[in-house]
Write a structure and sequence with these properties.
The protein is of the alpha/beta class. It has four helices and six strands; from the N terminus they run E-H-E-H-E-H-E-E-E-H.
């Protein structure tokens, strides 16, 4: 069943948060919602693909997998499995191989980030969404 959005909700960007640690996922979800985003949260790749198909996100935020290679595979798998192509930015955050505060573009609209605070993550999300308007 599709929820009908109020006119003032239609312009809000949808961010799909994929994080398997419930406490972390809930915290990120609350912070993003308080920043004015609509958030869809998922705890694994299969669920994320289904949610992305049902509610096409404007950005995908992933912290799932033990190492960088696995996180990249999962992130790209979600985007491709949902048929979103390269138009939806993917941010793989909390990458242990980066220094705190560092971010890096690694592929077509795929970014690694290790924010040292939520403001930095929010700034990265805002920059990426400026080039990809809600609802494309």
């Amino acid at each position: 069943m599709t929820k009908t959005l109020a006119p003032d909700e239609r312009h809000l960007s949808v961010i799909l948060v994929v994080e398997d640690v419930e406490e972390t996922r809930n915290g990120i979800e609350r912070l993003l919602a308080a920043s004015g985003y609509r958030v869809s949260a998922s705890l694994n790749e299969d669920d994320a693909v289904e949610k992305a198909r049902a509610r096409s996100p404007d950005l995908i935020l992933v912290s799932l997998g033990r190492d960088r290679t696995q996180r990249i595979r999962v992130a790209c798998g979600i985007r491709e499995g949902a048929g979103l192509g390269h138009r939806v930015p993917v941010v793989i955050f909390c990458d242990p191989d980066l220094q705190e505060g560092e971010e890096r573009c690694i592929a077509n609209n795929v970014y690694l980030a290790r924010p040292d605070n939520f403001d930095q993550l929010r700034s990265l999300i805002r920059r990426l969404l400026e080039t990809t308007p809600p609802g494309r």
